[in-house]
Amino acid sequence: MNRRGTLNPLVLLLAFVGSAPASLAGEWFERFKGEATDAVLHRFLYAMPKGGDLHLHLTGSAFPEWLHEIALAEAAEGVAYYVKTRIDNCSVYAGQADAYLLLYRTLDQHRLGALSECERDEYQALGALDAEARAAWMNSVRLDAPYEGRDEFFERHWQRLGDLLRNPHVVAEILYRNMQAFADEGVAYIEPQVPVFGFLDRTGTPLDPEAVLVLYRQRLAQADARATGVAVRMQLSALRFHPDAEQVVRRIYQLAAEHADIVAVNLVGREDHDRGHPLRFLDTFRDLRRTYPGVRLSIHAGESARPDSHVRDTLLLGAERIGHGLNLIQDAPTLLSFRHGPYLVEVNLISNLLLGYVDGFDAHPFPEYLRTGVPVALSTDDRGMWDSTLTDEFFVAVREYGLTWAELRALGRNSLAFSFLDQPSKSRLLAEYERRMDEFATDFQRRGPALLDDVQPLRRGFVCRRYGLCAPPLPTGAPGSQSVGVNPHGTTRNKLVFHGNG
Ligand SMILES: [Zn+2]
After folding, report:
1. CA–centroid distance, residue 268 to ligand 1 (Å)
2. Which of 40, 83, 263, 408 is 20 to 30 A from 95, alpha carbon to alpha carbon?
3. Ligand 1 midpoint to CA 323 (Å)
4. What is the pLDDT of residues 205-230, one digit of tens each?
5. Residues 6+ apart with CB under 8 A from 481
6. From CA 272, how far away is CA 277, in angstroms rounded?
7. Which residues have CB under 8 Å from 464's CB, separation 6+?
8. How far apart are CA 197 and CA 211, in angstroms?
9. Beta strand pairing status for 123-125 and 321-324?
C-alpha cells in the first residue's frame, strides 16, 4: 500500500511555513516525499549515505552478469565452465532424477570430464552460449517470475550455480564486486556470510577452510577493494538441517574464535525443515562456550509464516541478532523482550515477499517493530537472486510505510551499532555516518533535488517489475540487462582519501 499520499495536510502546512515543532524535525523530508515521483525518491535513496548491511549471503549476492563475467575470466587461469542446455535422456540413476533433469546447471571441466559421453553432449561451454541461451542461464538464477518461490530458490538456484561456487577465486571476486556496488550506493560496512567448505583449487584439488580464507583476505587487501572504502567482516554459517550440522558448527565456531575478521556464526537453511530447529544446537553451543570466548551469534529465526518458538529458542542459543524474525510478531512475550532491548532483527523486506513468507508488504511486521522500539535494520539477504539493491529495501520501506527522516537515520545507525565490529571501528563508522547524513541533509535542503542531478541509481529488475523503475535501454549489443550506478555521494568518494593516505 502506498501511504505517501496520506500525509497529514497539517504536517505539510507546518513544513512549508517552517515553524514546525521539534517533533516534526525532518519536515523538509516530509515535503520532499509528498512531491517526489517514485523515480526521484529512488534516486534520493540511492544517493543517501547508508550504514551497514548485516544480513547478506555472499554467493546469493552476485548479479548473474557478474557471475558470467567472473566465470569467463577464469578461462585465463585454466578453468572452463559448461552449462547444461538440453536433456538427451542419458542414463538416470535411482534417486538422482531431480539433479539430472535440472537445466542450466554449471560444471567445471573436471566434473564434466567425469560424465558419460552422452551427458557431456548435453553441456555447452558457457562462453559459447548464444544470446538466448545466455539470457536463459542468467534468468535461471533470478527469482523474478510469479510462479517461482521458495522451492525454486532453495532447491534449484544454488544447485544450478554448481561448480562456480566451488572455486574460491570466483567467490572472492563476488566479494569485491559487492564492495564496489555497495560503495556506489553509500554503504560503509558489510558483514557477509561467506562459504568456506567444499572448495577446490584451479587444478581440482580440495582446499581446506583456512586456505579459502587466505584467498578471501588476499582479495580484500588488493588496492581496488580497499579503494571502495567499504569495511568488511565475515560470518560463517552452517546448514541447519544437514545430518552433520553439529560438526560444522563446531568447526566454524573454532574458526571464528581464532580469526579476528570472522565476527560471527550463523545457522541457515529452511526453517520448515523439521531437523533444523534451534534447540537441536543448544548443547553444542553451550559446550563450545566452555572452550572458546568471544564468538558472537547472529542466527536466522522466525523466517516463517506460522507461529513457533524459534525466535525465543534462538535467543537461548546465545544469539544477539535474529535474521528475519518474521513470526516474532506472533510470540508476544518474546516480542516484548525485544522492545528497547539488546537484540536486533535483521529485516529483509524483498526476500520475505519473493519467498512468500508475507503475502504483501502490508502484511510485513517491519513497521510494527520499528515503531514500537524493536531495534531493526534493513538488509538484502540474496539480492543477486532478487535482482535488487539495499537502496530498493529503503525505497520499499519509505514508499510502503512512509518512513520519516528520523526513522531512516535510526535504521542506518542500528546497522552499525548492532554490527559485530570491534568498538573503535564501530565508533569511527558511527561518527562518520552521522557526519555524512548531516552533510547530505544540509546539502539537500540547500540545493533541493538539483543535488541529485549527477546521480544515476542502479535500477535492477525488482523495482522495474514492481514499481516501473526500469534501467535506461542499453546500447545495442551490450550483454545482460545491467544499468550502471553513478553516485557522487557514495563511499567510493573515499578513494581519494585512500590514495591520499597512501
Ligand atoms: Zn538469510
Report:
1. 7
2. 83
3. 6
4. 999 999 999 999 999 999 999 999 99
5. 65, 461, 471, 474
6. 9
7. 470, 471
8. 10
9. unpaired
Q: Which residues pair with 377 in a beta bridge?
A: 346
In angstroms, the CA 223 to CA 433 distance is 23
Distance 283 CA to ligand 1 centre (A): 23
Q: Please say whether the beta carbons of 109 and 91 come within 8 A.
A: no
Of 77, 82, 67, 91, the closest CA to residue 112 belongs to 82
> How far, in Å, is the centroid of ligand 1 from the Cα of 273?
15
CA–CA distance, 314 with 338 (Å, rounded to integer): 13
Q: What are residue 235's phi and psi, to 5 degrees?
A: -115, 150
Compute the distance from residue 476 Cα to the ligand 1 centre, in Å: 37
| DSSP codes, 300-321 | EE--SSS--SHHHHHHHHT-SE
Å from CA of 492 to ligand 1 middle: 26
Residues making up the chain, counted from first to last: 502
Residue 162 corresponds to which cell in the numbers above? 554448481
Ligand 1 mean position, distance from CA 439 (Å): 33
Query: What pLDDT is attached to residue 290?
Result: 98
Contact 180, 213 (CB under 8 A): no
Each residue of 306-349: pLDDT tens digit? 999 999 999 999 999 999 999 999 999 999 999 998 999 999 99
CA distances from 333 to 19, 298, 328, 329, 337 (A): 41, 20, 9, 10, 6
What's the 347 CA to ligand 1 centre distance in angstroms? Answer: 10
Distance 444 CA to ligand 1 centre (A): 34
For residue 237, how far is its CA from the centre of ligand 1 (angstroms)?
Answer: 10
